[in-house]
TrEMBL record:
Protein name (database record): 4-diphosphocytidyl-2C-methyl-D-erythritol kinase
PANTHER family: MOLYBDENUM COFACTOR CYTIDYLYLTRANSFERASE
Sample GO molecular function, one term: nucleotidyltransferase activity
CDD domains (UniProt xref): GT_2_like_f, MoeA_like
One Pfam family from the record: MoCF_biosynth
Domain MoaB/Mog: start-end pairs: 170-303
UniProt keywords, alphabetically: Kinase, Magnesium, Transferase
Protein's organism: Hypericibacter terrae
InterPro entries: Bifunc_Mopterin-bd, MoaB/Mog-like_dom_sf, MoaB/Mog_dom, MobA-like_NTP_Trfase, Nucleotide-diphossugar_trans
Length: 548
């Protein structure tokens, strides 16, 4: 890759290294400079620009990020479309992140241009959480360096999510004189909160005297009753492997794997097994909802991750949990504190009268055997969107019937004749009270838009990094759909008439990210019978592949 400062006239086709702002016009870092760009820079008085040009064998940052992310991606993870050399890995279920740490370190040591950052191993994550990110540092990497990275990643995926699995759990508590029944009841409630936060059912509640024989009988009864895991909270803390709890477990046919752990609170935890069933002697701190070492063990077991004596002894780094009020709790309905991907909804505008099509409703016109609006909605449903809202107006019942039982929310705009602004406002009103970070505004008459193109816009969207408006482009020309950050919902909702929100793009150039697309689908809508016929001919020649 060639890095150089060039006169503006010699920079055509090169990538801009540093962003340039000129009044309302803003050119972002990484922009491929076109002849029109060079003229605009010259008119603004810019004489030189710092740029990069690729050399033979270089792999562009997005393609390199995609290949690395795909290679490390394992079970219950998905790869987000790359943007600016970054490709995120997103959790698809509740579970624990499993990381092959030695191979992760080897990957990050291959070349400074390629980096992979993850959440800590065994972090509890929820669907939609970002668990890792591949970042390519320069605009491209040498192909040879990329091949060395991929060779390092050969074999099993480096990352996966071990899904939480509900199972039958029995909680046995022992009694001693002076231990209030209310304390035992509270312990049951707190334990059930823990289990609920891990997707489990309430524990079966059993109680007995703090006596070896009585506890052995309860353990036998729990296992005979179908318990897949037995948790024992003693009225008195375990002090030795020969104490009541470990002695009862041994008497019930079990083996004690390990007593104690380098985690505080939680030091006095005991790990045992009877056959293949885990049996845990609980530290006294489980009577509190605060995070303790037992939580780390319980989370792994609920995700079918074996916990060994060596695993427990390796928990000391980061194991000081005492007096740290900011530590996350292991509950809150399986929600984690991992960074999450932005929540993006789609508004599909399907309310217009399509007056330029004559008497026909263009959204009902068929392409490849289904109406145009069905193509647009199906693309939205196949993309990484949290909700899809379809705004109807003209012939709303026909649109609803066409979409059938697809997983969309319908909003009717009775004022559709006033123009597109009222339909946009109706769609935004439906999202007003939801935790949506951005909205993708799709036109119902753009049937060539593909899910991968929508995902590329979603991956580019990052208001924190200044990408609050994501606009698709093809050969430098801007198109649709556009993804808008939540900060623009209110001004968009107050638009009037048949005017879209394009002026907001012009007024907020520093927040705009142009996202290059592989074809002209983002420029192709259907406004006239002639346009529809031309599209039919084109689709017939291409075979209608809309996957990219």
């Amino acid at each position: 890759m060639i890095f150089a400062s060039l006169p503006v006239g010699e920079a055509e086709g090169a990538l801009l290294v540093h962003s340039i702002k000129m009044g309302k016009m803003a050119f972002r870092k990484g922009r491929k400079l076109s002849p029109d760009d060079l003229r605009a820079l010259t008119a603004a008085g810019v004489e030189r620009v710092t740029v990069v040009r690729f050399e033979p064998g270089d792999v562009a940052e997005d393609e390199a990020a995609r290949k690395i992310a795909t290679a490390v991606c394992g079970e219950n993870l998905e790869v987000a479309a790359p943007f600016t050399g970054r490709s995120n890995l997103i959790a698809k279920c509740h579970g624990l992140l499993v990381v092959d740490r030695p191979r992760l370190d080897r990957l990050n040591a291959v070349d400074e241009a390629v980096t992979l950052a993850t959440l800590p191993a065994f972090d509890l994550v929820a669907p939609g959480d970002m668990v890792a990110t591949v970042k390519i540092i320069p605009f491209a990497v040498p192909g040879e360096a990329l091949e060395r990275c991929l060779w390092t990643l050969a074999g099993e995926p480096l990352l996966r999510i071990a899904a939480l699995r509900p199972r039958a759990v029995t909680l046995i508590q022992t009694r001693l004189p002076g231990l209030k029944e209310s304390v035992i009841d509270k312990t049951v409630a707190i334990m059930n909160e823990r289990l609920s936060g891990l997707g489990g059912e309430p524990a079966r509640d059993r109680r007995c005297p703090h006596d070896e024989a009585a506890l052995t009988a309860e353990i036998d009864a729990a296992l005979e009753g179908g318990a897949e895991m037995v948790l024992i909270a003693g009225a008195s803390a375990i002090t030795d492997r020969r104490d009541v709890l470990p002695a009862a477990i041994t008497r019930a046919g079990g083996r004690v794997d390990h007593f104690g752990m380098p985690v505080d609170p939680g030091n006095l935890m005991l790990l045992a097994h009877i056959g293949d069933k885990p049996v845990l002697g609980l530290p006294g701190c489980v009577r509190s909802p605060k995070l303790n070492g037992f939580d780390w063990v319980l989370q792994r077991l609920m995700a079918d991750l074996p916990v060994t004596r060596q695993d427990i002894m390796a928990m000391g780094a980061g194991g000081l949990l005492k007096e740290i009020p900011t530590r996350p709790q292991p509950r809150a309905s399986s929600e984690s504190l991992a960074p999450r991907a932005p929540k993006v909804a789609a508004i599909v505008l399907a309310a217009g009268r399509s007056s330029r099509m004559g008497s026909a409703n263009k959204l009902m016109a068929e392409l490849e055997g289904k109406p145009l609006v069905d193509h647009a909605v199906d693309a939205a449903l196949a993309a990484r969107l949290d909700r899809v809202v379809v705004v109807t107006g003209h012939e709303s019942e026909r649109v609803r019937q066409s979409l059938g039982n697809r997983r969309v929310e319908f909003v009717h705009n009775p004022d559709y004749a006033s123009g597109i602004a009222s339909s946009l406002a109706a769609g935004l009103a439906a999202l007003k009270d939801s935790a949506i970070d951005g909205v993708l505004v799709l036109l119902g008459d753009m049937p060539r838009i593909a899910p991968a193109q929508l995902d590329r816009l979603i991956s580019a969207f990052n208001p924190v990094e200044g990408r609050a408006i994501c606009v698709p482009t093809f050969n430098g020309k801007r198109g649709n759909p556009v993804l808008w950050g939540r900060r623009f919902f209110e001004p968009m909702a107050h638009l009037k008439g048949d005017v879209g929100a394009r002026h907001l793009i012009a007024e907020n150039g520093e927040l705009v990210a142009e996202v290059a697309m592989p074809d002209d689908a983002v420029l192709t809508d259907v406004d006239t019978p002639q346009a529809l016929e031309a599209l039919r001919r084109q689709e017939g020649k291409s075979g209608g592949d809309r996957s990219a």
